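Thanks for the sequence, V.! I ran Probable queuosine precursor transporter right away. Repeating your input here for the record:
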Amino acid sequence: MGGKTFPVANIFGYQLNASVAIFVLPLIFTINDVVTEVYGRERTRSIIRSGLVVIFLILLFSLLTTSLPPSTRFTQSEQAYDTIFGLSARIAAASLTAFTVAEFLDVIIFVRLRKRLGKKALWLRNNASNIISQFVDTTLFMTLAFYSLERGIGNNILFLSSLIVPYWTLKSLMSVIETPLVYFGVNWLKKEQ
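Predicted structure:
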């Protein structure tokens, strides 16, 4: 999903593009904060672990199926199938690693802020935990996926920064925009209890 990009804005001649995953990831972090607020840290961690197992199995299955030889009936469609389901092992590993670290970090930050602030300032706890964990997610993913041993450190820093800053900014903006969903989600889940 994250391989497709779309134009977001042209800022002073710089075309800002973003992955379509930019819409999903902040929402997942927001849902985690809602679940943590209502059901607690352990329930959220359990959900994260379950989700990671599913994501890992999907990635593994995608890598496996694209490596199998096609039957004679399927040879004409093989390239399209591989294009749709094929993933770079490096991109898949970077994605899963960054997502795992950031998901658990989001819960840790949210819980610590809740201990410090109590039940007040849900908007602040949600956005602070999301913005920090999204920075870690973006930085870790971009570094693991795109760091080049052939470029010098300076060139890598410039290149990675050109990816990290706009993506993280967009994710942070999405988190702020989704703040009303946090209040809606918490109220809805509390009514269900």
